[in-house]
Amino acid sequence: MPQEARPRAADRLDDDDYPAFTMGRAAEMIGATPAFLRSLGEARLIEPLRSEGGHRRYSRYQLRIAARARELVDGGTPIEAACRIIILEDQLEEALKLNEALRRETGDDGGPAGA
Predict the structure, then answer these.
(1) Which residues form the signal peptide (predicted)?
(2) Beta-ladder partners of 22
(3) Integer Cα distance of 83 and 22 in angstroms
(4) How many domains does the chain have?
(5) What is the pTM of this model?
(6) Residue 85 is part of a domain; what is its CATH number?
(7) Is the residue at 57 inside a domain?
(8) Which of 62, 60, 24, 13 is nearest to 41 (CA)?
(9) Is 61 inside any structural domain?
(10) Whole-angstrom Cα distance, residue 86 to residue 72?
(11) In Å, what is the CA distance from 24 to each residue of 1, 27, 57, 66, 104?
């Protein structure tokens, strides 16, 4: 019987959503403490995957979000406000992508209406 093709672990390292990093390594990579990462989880900004042993694992995408939160907090923004800012930035980016896709679909170049 042919064996099902299983992705190699090394192939997953290029996946932004693959939870490859332990809490300690993730904190080190963004120059923060594990407590800071836990606080982002408590604020529901990022929700790390749990290993079979219950340990938090972070993806590259989550680390980019955490690094942005750290920038804001280091600049004096309260963590709750930093989380809200990041959520709004993410929503804006998605809206801009959707808007661009709709423009391409309809052939609208984004110029003034009726010109």
Answers:
(1) none
(2) 57
(3) 21
(4) 1
(5) 0.74
(6) 1.10.1660.10
(7) yes
(8) 62
(9) yes
(10) 9
(11) 42, 5, 10, 13, 44
